[in-house]
From TrEMBL:
The keyword Transferase applies. GO terms for biological process: creatine biosynthetic process. Its EC number is 2.1.4.2. Belongs to the amidinotransferase family. It comes from the Bacteria. GO terms for molecular function: glycine amidinotransferase activity; scyllo-inosamine-4-phosphate amidinotransferase activity. Keywords: Transferase. This is Inosamine-phosphate amidinotransferase 1. InterPro entries: AmidinoTrfase. It is an enzyme of class 2 (transferase). The active site is at 200, 248, 355 (amidino-cysteine intermediate). The gene is strB1.
Length: 377
């Protein structure tokens, strides 16, 4: 790649896409249990406490869809990068902890975010994902060398000692009544403590000068505060939704283009967040129900609301999972070209079309889409 042909630039999720990464399913693991996450798939050979590589036939099916998605994007003139998988089955650790497995590299969106000309690696909050950045480093190095204006940053690598987690969280939380769970969500009293900054990149929705950071099972207030200090020229807003298992904002609150945000109505937004969008002349559109409430894929930890986990190619073009026909019809009525993409087999490896990508370059400049203040925003 030559400096003239490569540019790191992306301020939002809807400007024309020119350069993107698409993940790979190779070697993905059902993670070994750890303080922040536990997998339990007894019907599929991985009961609570068990871990291991996802079966080869599932991996092959997922890679077929990922490769097909990459080819579709290339066919539309978009440059595509791919990560380099490592041995995710190996035991990993630091001087302060060891863990029996890693995870995978299908969802680069979780680890990486572009803000302007900066490529930022998130902290991550699972021990199984601490070293995942290694899969992306060859591409980051190449981009850094090719674009003399690109910035490459990594948030402080967390210690992830036991002090970073609420001990026995899942044992306690799963027994709570609904209202107590929702109260803990509102207080962000979940799996993580505030011992150190922690965030996943997929908990950030970019809208020019405004960055909306969901407080979740993998993102704490300290992480949102680190982002506020790191991006002093932006308005960084910690937000939450009525969702007992908040994990990544891109299946809940999805800005589609200036003036239109798609909302998963099963997870109501804070009234102040909704009003902030509305006073700035944005329409908050409630998404129709997902086409299927049951992922037929085995070993899937994903919600049916992956339906809204779409990749925008520009303000009028969206890639959507091929079975989400009702949502495609809903958005077609808003003038979008909807591109159906088969992607159900990829879900157990880390999510949907947005999860599986990281946008490196979108045409466009920094804009202020929210000139009017409201409440704490």
């Amino acid at each position: 790649m030559s400096p003239r042909s490569v540019k790191v630039n992306s301020w939002n999720g809807w400007d024309p896409l020119r350069h993107v990464m698409v993940g790979r399913a190779d070697g993905t693991m059902v993670q070994a249990p750890e303080p922040a996450v536990r997998r339990d798939f007894p019907d599929d050979g991985f009961p609570l406490g068990a871990y291991g590589r996802i079966p080869d036939e599932m991996t092959a099916a997922a890679n077929e869809q990922l490769d097909g998605f990459a080819a579709l994007l290339e066919g539309r003139g978009i440059r595509v990068e791919r990560p380099e998988p490592i041995d995710f089955s190996q035991r990993v650790g630091t001087p302060e902890w060891t863990h029996n497995s890693m995870f995978g590299c299908m969802p680069p969106r979780d680890v990486l975010i572009t803000v302007g000309n900066e490529m930022l690696e998130a902290t991550m909050s699972y021990r199984s994902r601490w070293f995942e950045y290694l899969c992306y480093r060859p591409v980051l190095q190449k981009l850094f060398e090719a674009d003399p204006d690109a910035r490459w940053e990594a948030a402080p690598k967390p210690r992830l000692t036991d002090a970073s987690y609420n001990t026995g969280f899942w044992d306690t939380y799963n027994q709570l009544p609904l209202e107590e769970k929702l109260d803990r969500v509102r207080r962000n009293d979940l799996a993580l403590t505030e011992a150190e900054p922690l965030f996943d990149a997929a908990d950030i929705a970019r809208c020019g000068k405004d960055l909306f950071v969901q407080l979740s099972l993998v993102t704490n207030r300290s992480g949102a505060d680190w982002l506020r200090r790191h991006f002093p020229d932006h308005r960084v807003h910690p937000v939450s939704f009525t969702n007992t298992h908040p994990l990544h904002i891109d299946a809940t609150w999805v800005p589609l283009r200036p003036g239109l945000v798609l909302h998963n109505g099963e997870r109501p937004a804070e009234p102040e967040l909704t009003e902030y969008f509305k006073v700035n002349d944005w329409e908050v559109l409630e998404a129709v129900q997902p086409e299927s409430w049951h992922h037929e894929a085995r070993l899937s930890f994903c919600s049916p609301w992956l339906s809204v986990n779409m990749l925008s190619l520009d303000e009028n073009t969206l890639c959507i999972e091929e079975r989400e026909v009702r949502l495609a019809d809903q958005l077609t009525a808003y003038g979008f070209e909807m591109i159906p993409v088969p992607f159900r087999a990829a879900a157990p490896f880390g999510g949907g079309l947005h999860c599986a990508t990281w946008d490196i370059e979108r045409e466009g400049t920094l804009q202020d889409y929210f000139p009017r203040r409201h409440g704490r925003f």
